[in-house]
Amino acid sequence: MAYLHTLSLVLIVALGLPEAVVSCPHPCACYLPTEVHCTFRSLIQVPARIPKHVERINLGFNTINSITESSLAGLRKLELLMIHGNDIHNIPNAVFKDLISLQVLKMSYNKVKVITGQTFQGLSSLMRLHVDNNKIEFIHPDAFSGMTSLRLVHLEGNLLQQLHPNTFATFSFLQYFKMSTVRHLYLSDNAIRTLPSEMFRTLPLLENVYLHGNPWTCDCRLNWLLNWNKNTGGVLKCKKDKAYEGGQMCPMCSKPKQLTKKEIMQLDDVSCTRPTIQSPLKHSTSSPGEDNESELMSMEEYQEPFGNVTLNMTDEHGNKIDLNCRINSPSDSTKIKWDHINPQQIAINMTLSLDVECSIDRERYEKLWKLIAYYSEVPVHLEKEIMLSKEPHLSFRYKQDIEKDAYYFTGAVIAINRKIQRFEVLKNGTFVIQNAQLQDRGQYLCTVQNQYGVDKMIVTLIVLAQQPRMLVSRYQDVTVYLGDTANMECRAQGLPTPQISWILPDRTIMRAATQTGSRIMLFENGTLSVTSTNFPDRGIYKCIASNAAGADSLSVRLHVAALPPMIQQQRSENFTLTEGQTVYIHCTAKAAPVPNVRWILFDGTQVRPSQFVNGNLFVFPNGTLYIRNLSPKDSGNYECMASNAVGASRRTVSVTVKKKTTTAKITATSPQRTDVTYGGALRLDCSASGDPGPRIIWRVPSKKLVDTQYSFDPRIKVYINGTLVVQMVTEKDEGDYLCVARNKMGDDYVLLKVNVMMKPAKIEYKQQTNKKVTYGGDLKVDCIASGLPDPDITWGLPDGTMINSVMQSDDSGIRTKRYVVFNNGTLYFNEVGMREEGNYTCYAENRMGKDEMKVHVKVVADSPTIKNKTYSVINVPYGEPISLKCNAKGEPAPRIIWLSPTNRIIPTSSDKYQVHSDGMLLIQKAQRFDNGNYTCLAKNSAGEDKKVIRVDVQVAPPSINGHRNAMNTVKQTAIKEQRKLLDCKAEGMPLPRVMWLLPENVVLPAPYYGSRITVHRNGTLDIKSIRKTDAVQLVCIARNEGGEARLIIDLDVTENLEKPVLKNPLNETLALTVGTSVRMNCSAEGRPTPEIVWILPNGSKLTSGSQLYRVYHGQDGTLHISSPSVTEAGTYRCLAKNEVGQTERTVSLEIGKKTEINNPYTGLVSIINGENLLLHCSAGGNPPPKLFWTLPNGMILSRPQTVGRYAVLQNGSLTVQQASVYDRGTYSCKSVNEYGTSLMSVPVIVIAYPPRITNGPAPVTYARPGPAIQLNCMAIGIPKADITWELPDKTRLTVTSHARLFGNKYLHPQGSLIIQKPSQMDTGFYKCTAKNLIGSDSKATYVHVF
């Protein structure tokens, strides 16, 4: 019952454990439910599945190289995050957005380079930020916006060079007033040379700032810092450092040279030199000390206004003006106070003082002075002319002050290296105006400014202009024929170059040069061209040349005249031509408008230009008639007609074609004598010429005629070109072939002879007359015969049956389909028996002769033979399986039968026995009754063989703890209140059952589990909290089928005994160097003092103070070997024992061996980018060698060691996490011990290829409003490509592992962009880019929503 109670308690405790312990992320430690500690765990990423209720996380001193959006998601209760001492290069935007309770963030000693405006988004409760000792080069001005709880910022030890004035602002008011809650700021040990004067204005609560360790440039730009330091009284701190004068390190000057290493706080004032314009256009320069004020606007006046206001002003005289004004930046008298209510709420109290500035053009300029002229005697920019009256109000008349009006400016500003339409400022400050216009006249202001001052220069521009003047006659008359082109010239000169425009008779105005293809075109030189003129084009055309200085014009009257057609060739003409010739008949007409030309043939057919008829007649666009390959049928009269709206004209041509004839003549044939193989194809060529075309007739040896129209034999065919072809030639096709060519004019013939070649049948490669075949095997006999024609193959069987490739043997079902004669004459049959023995004859026969081949087949049978038939005895442990082998050979294959010791046939398959196909007998779980002789019988038709094997099943009686006696007695001593283990290791066959016999006949079987006494499965008796009453006699009993053994233990309980404890390692290996003395220590503690005995490799024992040859055992337990040789190598055992027990130490003395690498690489190792690389380097040697890996970048690592992504394991293997293309190269493993060195080099390539978009969007995508649009972008590449979409508004969306929604745009993890409910606002270019380390690919589509 005590055991049951204990078990219940354990279960209750397990069920009561908090969930945090169960869900602690591997391999971290969670000492409290709300804490996660993962320091020094060699992590390369943030552990997954961090509990959401965790408040403190420590990930310091690992090799984490990145943080993903999901790494810290959902940790809304987290208050402390420490991730210092890692390898983080980049912090994704909004990665901390869920950490609304975070108060301390420590990211020191990483490799972060940039802090963006969204890096710390969501950290409204953060009070302490540690990002020191990184590689930060840039901080966005809005980086700390919204972090209203921030009090301390550590940025020392980075690469910052400059800072924006609003960098540390944590909140803003009216988008203008930037304020910060930071009180402690550390900027030391960066690369900052100067700070903007407005920076500390946003830090009214600042208590400490550290600026030492920066290369400060001490010029006038730092005057504000000196004044600020004097007024703030101790906010600027120094670092305590005894190495510097005064015991502290303060900000020091780096430039200029005369101030190097001087403390900034000890300076009184620093000066600068303002810039001066060096230009011949500048009329005068002012000295640096002058106050060169003027009405010209300063650069500060071009800044964006604080706001805008409209002023409406009127007076009692009816004068009225509306002014649009801007509100300038607030003055320094502005006062701001705020209360920090909570991280999301701030109460602000502010007092503003503002100036208003209004812009005026010339019209408003005049209205304004009319309005104020009554109230001021000295109006600005107006010159007083006369006094109008004194009563009731003093009034004057004013005129514009032309001299002062010259200072009127438009206010447009162009910065250096910028271009606006025709205006451009070059990099060297030169102002360029392209294509100067009259309106460009006036004064231009050049202003240069730096932190030390301003200089200005005014340039007056005068633009020269000349009124246009026509260079041709102002009145012209132009006459053209109907349909021709009229060109009207208009040339003018002027400054600037005049613009030419034409007014047409229909009052249409043409101002710009037109594109080609129009009937009326205006060229760049001013010429107006009218093509294909018609009567409506008649009239007056007016040309106007104009520029900014004036205009000039000219008039052209256009006359359009008509002309009837006139054919240029003879009206009548005769042509006599020969058949087959080609003729060109010309017909060219002149007329206005252009006439239509057509030809009328002798049969009434009309043919127009570019028309092709009758296969040989064509009319060219110029009217020429072309006739090719003339024949008599082309004879006749051809008439050409040219007509237009005014009239018509004709031309007649008579064509006569003479016919040409020739006698048939054979021009080419095959050779006079042709040899052809029997059964082949005969081809005889015969071609002829003549007019009319001749007909080819062939006479064959049988005196019959064939031609292209007729053939008496389907094997014979005459083609249209005269060729004769005879298929499957026989001896009858031998003889004379006559080719006759015939037409109306005569005949021609050629005689050709054909010889048919034949050969008698002959059997090739005759085989031996005798052939042996194994009983039951396959018989294959080749019979290859040749001859012309091809001989027929026939086989004669021993029983007289004749078979061939067409007829297979069939003896009434006895041999059906066992015999096969292949087309090549080979005879094949399977499962040969004794009755297949005999003579086989192969016959080969054709028309020319006959041949034969005889083969005598002998069927061979073999009686069974068993290998290793000698009588054998097999000893097998009790309960183990038995395998009895019986391999037999014979023809036919013998059958295996096993007989048991009782001479019964053993079944082939049962739970106890299994007979395998190779004859092996398997007996499961050997028992005593399986003893005896087993007989293996092998039988076939030729005889039988047998083999006898004896099986002895071994049974061993039990033995306890190695004692061979059936009963043994030992004494054991135990210490009170301690635990005691009593061994009872039982051995025997079969394995004995163990039980313990306690006083009062209490029996405890193994295993047994009690509250204080336990019997383990191995028989050990475990007694907890030994008592005095446990000093009794205990008996361990071991039983099996071989007998019983007993171990009697007399247990004595004492209080102050201690078992021996060795001070040296239990196992040690030492290297043996021949001739060098060796010392092996062995010291032990115990109560009573233990006795130390050394056991040598040969079994000899040495007690303390004894010596054997060169081996001496000292009093302190040390074993000395003087001048050892190879024979002293081996295992030495040291035993320390007393009454309580004994302990043992083993020292292996091995001969020194040179190190050697066991697994050399023989080829190139390739790996895909992003996978983990594992290179093995197993080295042996004595003493064990030291192992070093040399990386391609020169880094050397030993085992075990981890540096970033590289790690050398204890077994010598090198691992590279997430290998990239930069890890390719040769890796060298070097093994070193005192006997030598071994080296192995492994070339490694990292497989990678640039991305390629395999499924991208179409160039143009059309869609209707409403239904979703899916733009696919799937890419392949190694490493995996990052996919980015660029929207029409230049917004970039990056694909992540999770789907994301941006407004109505859904970004799928596989790269597809889905536009939900599209509208016309979604129209535009969408560009998909896939990029990895190797390269990039992109595809774009234009989405048109209509």
From TrEMBL:
Signal peptide per UniProt: 1-23
Q: Which CDD domains match?
A: Ig (cd00096)
User: Any idea which UniProt keywords this protein has?
Assistant: Disulfide bond, Glycoprotein, Immunoglobulin domain, Leucine-rich repeat, Membrane, Repeat, Secreted, Signal, Transmembrane, Transmembrane helix
Question: By its UniProt entry, which Pfam families does this protein fall under?
Answer: I-set, Ig_3, LRR_8
Q: Where in the cell is it found?
A: Membrane; Secreted
The answer to keyword Glycoprotein applying to this record is yes
The answer to whether the entry has keyword Repeat is yes
Residues forming the Ig-like domain are 305-460, 468-559, 565-656, 664-757, 760-860, 864-950, 958-1054, 1060-1148, 1160-1245, 1251-1346
Q: How does it sit in the membrane?
A: Single-pass membrane protein
Q: A single GO CC term, please?
A: membrane
- The identity of this protein, by name, is Matrix-remodeling-associated protein 5
